[in-house]
Write a structure and sequence with these properties.
The structure holds 2 protein chains of 2 kinds.
Chain A: E1 3-7, E2 10-14, E3 19-26, E4 32-38, E5 45-50, E6 56-59, E7 62-66, E8 70-75, E9 84-91, E10 97-99, E11 103-108
Chain B: E1 4-7, E2 10-13, E3 18-25, E4 31-37, E5 44-50, E6 53-57, E7 64-70, E8 73-79, E9 87-94, E10 103-104, E11 108-112
Parallel strand pairs in B: 2-11
Antiparallel strand pairs in B: 1-3, 3-8, 4-5, 4-9, 5-6, 7-8, 9-10, 9-11
Classes of the chains: A mainly beta, B mainly beta.
């Protein structure tokens, strides 16, 4: 069974204080690793797809990287509007998305 | 309308009621999904439709009944629910089933009293 573990569960950052979120996974035949952002009371918003180890994707202050066992979401110089829960998911040979519980990030002005 | 829309956004129902959730995608996708999101738990996949055929039913109780009349619309019919069914219900779509990113709607916050 595909599994995703995200850490830390919750993170408080000062504005401008860079940090990284971790997503460890086990999957049979990785077809893609996905990062989403979710604001309270809303649906997840797609951020990135990573397909193979060594791949990196960037969007504004966010950068996602992938190894054979884990992915990191780096947040550089965060702003209060980056406060959200970040979800990681993997798609394997069973064609399902397996989600982690999320990293709840709060950026304090 | 763009993306994935869901109605209603909030729903309160008694255990003996019957109600339906509606989802519509405007992305030209061929696969649609229902997920349940409860506090402190990962998203739980409920149903998958690919090319209007149900391809997955993830051991969901029969009080939840999905319907996919065409590739743009998805319904979740609810009856005789339990309080533990209170959650955020999310609809998603993707180009195809498999290693494709899924796009989510805003969700329906369901409370069962």
């Amino acid at each position: 069974e595909d599994q995703v573990t995200q850490s830390p569960e919750a993170l408080r950052l000062q504005e401008g204080e860079s940090s990284s979120l971790n997503c460890s996974y086990t999957v049979s035949g990785l077809r893609g690793l996905f990062w989403y952002r979710q604001d309270p009371g809303k649906g997840p918003e797609f951020l990135f797809t990573l397909y193979s180890a060594g791949e990196e994707k960037e969007k504004e202050r966010l950068k996602a990287t992938l190894t054979k066992k884990e992915s990191f979401l780096h947040i550089t110089a965060p702003k209060p509007e980056d406060s959200a829960t970040y979800l990681c998911a993997v798609s394997g040979g069973n064609n399902r998305l397996a989600f982690g519980k999320g990293n709840q990030v709060v950026v304090i002005p | 309308e763009t993306g994935v829309t869901q109605t209603p956004r909030h729903l309160v129902m008694g255990m003996t009621n019957k109600k339906s959730l509606k989802c519509e995608q405007h992305l030209g996708h061929n696969a649609m999904y229902w997920y349940k999101q409860s506090a402190k738990k990962p998203l739980e996949l409920m149903f998958v439709y690919s090319l209007e055929e149900r391809v997955e039913n993830n051991s969901v109780p029969s009080r939840f009944s999905p319907e996919c009349p065409n590739s743009s619309h998805l319904f979740l019919h609810l009856h005789t629910l339990q309080p533990e069914d209170s959650a955020l219900y999310l609809c998603a779509s993707s180009q195809l089933q498999g290693g494709y990113e899924q796009y989510f709607g805003p969700g329906t916050r369901l409370t069962v009293t």
